[in-house]
Specification:
With about 60 residues, the protein is mainly α. It has one domain. It is built from 4 helices and no strands. α3 (about 30-45) packs antiparallel against α4 (about 50-60). The radius of gyration is 15 Å and the shape is elongated. The two termini are about 15 Å apart.
């Protein structure tokens, strides 16, 4: 696990006030990744976003 992932999980645990294990995080759906994917698809379909924005949105879900 990267330092960034560990830090993000620490903040999430503090914000929601629950001690979620790393295994529980790993089993949870990738909500933010799905939001980025949907936004990129909608922007691509609408043709309203520049290619640079689409690459950022798509890269954020990796």
């Amino acid at each position: 696990m990267t330092d960034q992932v560990a830090a993000d999980r620490k903040v999430a645990r503090e914000v929601i006030g629950a001690d979620i294990s790393d295994e529980e995080f790993d089993k949870a759906p990738d909500v933010l990744g799905n939001v980025y994917r949907i936004a990129a698809e909608k922007a691509r379909t609408a043709g309203s976003a520049p290619a640079s924005l689409l690459s950022i949105l798509e890269g954020a879900q990796e």
